[in-house]
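User: For a reading group we're discussing how well predicted structures match intuition. Take NAD(P)-dependent alcohol dehydrogenase. Before you show the prediction, I'll give you the sequence so everyone sees exactly what went in.
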Amino acid sequence: MEIEAAVLRSTDAPFTLETAQLAEPGPGQILVEVHGVGFCHTDLLPRTPGFAATLPIVAGHEGAGIVRALGPGVTGIDSGTHVLMSFDSCGGCGKCLTGHPSYCSSFWPRNMPNHSAGTHDPIRDMQDNPVSSRWFGQSSFATHALATIRNVVPIDPRLDLTLVGPLGCSMQTGAGAILNSLAVQAGSSVVVLGTGSVGLAAVMAARVAGATTIVAVDRNTERLAMAERLGATDTMEAGVDLGRMLRKATRGGADYALDTTGISEVIAEGIAGLCSTGVIGLVSAPKTDLLLPAATLARGKTVTGILEGDAVPQRLIPDLIELWQQSRFPFDELVQTYPLSHINDAERDMISGKTIKPVLVPAR
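Assistant: Thanks. Here is the predicted 3D structure of NAD(P)-dependent alcohol dehydrogenase, as structure tokens, for the group to look at:
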């Protein structure tokens, strides 16, 4: 079928809105008509020279829309169902079967497309050349996307599909890191390093978890003000001697910290701001080697990597929607919508910090 898609053809080029051909859903696949898709910093990874995903590519992995067709063998969902799309997983490996699909044994080939490796690409441009697709199991910077039963979450048809897409990744990652991976306890202290969409989701989740001290750290004063509105009890600008400042703000050291920056120096200060037996989670791989003084972990501190908030999307996303409807997880305050044709404006505004969470809306 003919679709419109935002295609990235080189690491330093703008996205181009192109007409393309999308294959019909194959065995186990679902065709989703996209009504809104969040723009996440992860969607910038294909701009990294040498990155695993092959260009040209259709990115986008926070899609929301309506199921329009089912491939052979698909059961448990009907055409016309409203869905959110999240990451893909196999459902049958040990990690999937024990409730950890973000650590699926085939996570990377399922979510990082690479047609040079011989994988099938369901999108072809108008010159019949392959375009990398199924980015995080969807490639939803388009009017339509292919997904599977594993990476769609049915939702109430009364919900605004141009709003809810970010729950499929950034909001899920930040909230899941707090509620699942770190399992923040009531009455505890939490530090959130970085207040983009993931960090602000973590702030909201920490309040839901009952943390009594929530410290948000950033260089952007407007985002720190937003963090205060969403539940942070303290805010501070990142700078020299951050670890000491965090220990002071948390009265001896934080029980938990979450880094969303990927900046090694900030991570090291976050570790320094932990109490004995404190835990820091990293949702973004450090951009450079993380070097720590030899005695840093001697007091029982833990450093752990976190992928997709250790979430089962079909469980966490409905919980986040319910919290939002109770006004306890107001993620909609972070969203700004753009037409899909304005994707380059959305990218610029996200990078500059003008917009926390852009959502792209394909023309209908």
